[in-house]
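Case study.
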Amino acid sequence: MKYRALALAPLVAGLALILVDAHATDHASIYAWLVPTVKAVAALGSIAAAIRFQRGDYLRLAWVLTASCYALLLLKDVLFGTGSRLMHPFSDSVAVLRGALTLLANAGGVIGAFLLARAWQVAGIFLPGSKATQRLVFAAGVAVSLAIAGRAAVQDVRTLIAGDPQILVIVASDLGDILSMILIAPVLLTAIALRGGLLAWPWTLMASAQIAWLFYDAVGGLGNATGASVVTVRSIEELFRLLACGFTCASGVAQRMVMRDMRSASRRRL
Amino acid sequence: MGPILAVVLDELTHYLGPHAAKKTVDNIAEKLGKRTEELGRKDVPDVLGALRPTLRTLLGAERGEEVLAKITRELGG
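After joint prediction, the assembly is written out as follows.
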């Protein structure tokens, strides 16, 4: 029950955002506090998981890097204010600094996601389906990632090379997103492999977070294609950002709860 | 199902779920050159040793060892 409540929390928060957004006139002021808040929530959830592990534990580093990703993205917002892929209200020097922080954050995020994605292999558990099915799922992950973020990334890199530093933060984000999205498949398959066990919760919630980031990226591309207004696209983007950060937090808290539950059970028997 | 196998599977299923737990135990038995049903008391140290990397990776070293200790206690070890 408590795990289900944890899984529902980001969805309830998302619903609340939809309601608030629908009645708001000044969306920018909502996002100015919402964006740092959801990043802080994701960082705190990841820290909650990390500190349950000991030095040298495989998943400790994965959670530390995930926490560092969100903490650096939060630091960027605290130092320089929030922005979006759709608006670039920063001076060139600030844009470069924001880009550098985003690059660093994404590097940590991608390595953290990579460690989570290969945990099944390190743990020696078996993913569902035949080897061929698993390869197909991995290939589908790569194809979807490139389809959603690939074209935008190429375009953004060209703009950066042409000398627009405003785009650096977006390029850093694009590259991090592509690599992280490729890693959705193994995390999702790990969650499916562990179905019915307590450990399925952190993995399912982490896969949900990664899928929400995938939708976050897809919204930008679809917005351009459909000609939707910037306000509409931004509000949908922020909804998926909230879900992604919320599920990351929930995943970290679930990992912590699994370990705490076990400890209680062991103590009862002693 | 023998008592050894039941205890190990019960504890593993709690964390890994029934499918991963069974596959993990099947794989350990295979590595020991046995069928899962043939695992006996003398195989317990090998089974626990083979489970160690799985539990330490997913639950951390301390918690992983707690689960292994719990299995050992329940087997009367």
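Observations recorded in class. The two ends of chain A are 26 Å apart (CA to CA). The interface with chain B takes residues 52-54, 56-60, 119, 122-126, 128, 193-200, 258-259, 262-263, 265-266, 269 of chain A (CB under 8 Å). We will return to this complex in the next lecture.
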